Every structure is written in structure tokens, then in C-alpha cells.
Amino acid sequence: HGVQAGAGGTFTDSVPALVAGGVLIAGAFAAAAHRLHRRDSR
Q: Which one-letter DSSP state was computed for residue 7?
């Protein structure tokens, strides 16, 4: 099972990569929501 960049198998088969991606996405959503909430409360 060779490693092929861009094949997508690395990310779908690697749990740490999925977790890292989920954390990054959650962080981005949290930052966006926090920014919107602060802007609305003024």
C-alpha cells in the first residue's frame, strides 16, 4: 500500500488526521461564531 499524495487515502484512513481536521474546522467555526456574537452584542 504505497503512499500517494492527493489520493485521499491518507486522510480517510488516518484517525489522527481526521481528528486534527475536525479540531481545525471546529476552531474556525468557534472563532467565526465568537466574532459574529461580539459584533452583534455591541
A: S
The DSSP symbol for 1 reads -
Q: Give me the pLDDT at residue 28, please.
A: 95
What would the pLDDT profile of 1-29 be if each residue is shown by its tens digit? Answer: 555 555 555 555 678 878 888 899 999 99
| H-run or E-run covering 23 | helix 15-41
CA of 12: how far to CAs of 3, 17, 18, 24, 25, in Å?
Answer: 13, 8, 7, 16, 16
Q: Residue 22 phi/psi, 5° resolution?
A: -65, -40
CA dist 36 and 34 (Å) reads: 6
